[in-house]
Design brief:
It is a single chain. The protein is α/β, with parallel strands linked by helices. It has one domain: Rossmann fold, CATH 3.40.50. The protein is built from five helices and six strands, in the order βαββαβαββαα. The mean pLDDT is 89.
Length: 148
């Protein structure tokens, strides 16, 4: 079992380290750079080459059944689910084989709407304490489920 974090814009890296450490799980923090390495021996900081989707490729080729992937990137989530990994968004929402199709469709629809209206502003609501709390609960639940 391992946890893979798509770290470039992840707001819950510290929470992942705290919960993963409590469970004794290896954690891979994957980014294009700019991430401060952790002194925690369970945390592996992985810096991938510059370029689009390099972190996604690294995670997708390694995540396997029994692993957990933390990402807000829906295409990466779909690839990891297809490979058998559990996937959590930073707000605590679990993406599964049962819901990833709808999530991908919604993502595509929203991209089309943004492209059709160049004056459309905003990126949704901010990340708050409730999101962080939901994430902590969800990660704890998923790790316990996978440990059984």
């Amino acid at each position: 079992m391992a946890i893979y974090v798509d770290a470039d814009a992840c707001p819950v890296k510290a929470e992942v380290e705290r919960v993963g450490t409590r469970h004794g799980v290896a954690i891979h923090i994957v980014s294009n750079g700019g991430i401060r390495p952790s002194a925690n021996p369970l945390v592996n900081t992985v810096i991938v080459a510059e370029g689009p989707d390099e972190a996604d490729k690294w995670i997708a080729t390694r995540a396997a059944p029994g692993d957990v992937v933390i990402t807000a990137d829906i295409p990466l989530a779909a690839r990891c689910i297809e490979g058998g990994a559990a996937v959590l968004k930073p707000d605590g929402a679990e993406l599964t084989a049962a819901n990833i199709g709808n999530v991908l469709a919604t993502r595509d629809l929203m991209a089309d709407l943004r492209a059709a209206d160049p004056f459309r502003q905003g990126s949704g609501r901010g990340f708050g304490k409730q999101d962080r709390s939901r994430f902590l609960d969800a990660l704890e639940r998923v790790l316990r489920r996978l440990a059984r």
